[in-house]
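Recap from last week: sequence in, structure out.
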Amino acid sequence: MNPSQARTTLHLLHLLPFLVLLATGLLLRNPDLRSALVGGYSLVLRRVHLWAAIAFCALPLPVFFRHGVRTLVAVRAGPPVRTRWRRIHTAATLGFSSALAATGFLLSADLHLPERLLTEARSLHAACAVSAALLLVVHLLEVSGSRIRDLLVRTRGAEA
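Predicted structure tokens:
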């Protein structure tokens, strides 16, 4: 597997559990929405959320170990604005992923922590989840926009 394929694999291994975490987290945090969509099932959702969190943390590890962090997070050269965005996106993804993993651990582990710390962890976890979801939307818009630009450039080049 070359670095480009490894990045694509890493994207998928991170995206799929993230989408499950986003859906289950939204349902766990909003009991009215949960009861309207799936009924009670909060214990099942908690278990799915926990296993998705384990997958979110564990699935990318073999790709990281095989190819190295530097290879996978290296930003390819391109236009300055795009390169800057890729750096911001990579740093934010690593930061949000780390914060979500750390706060998720604090919230799920039975460590008998002070309630104030758990409240702060819940708030940070929710803020990071929302931020990561917004980052995903911006990323998808950026990728689709760049693909449309590339297609237009190729089309104009073919017409000339």
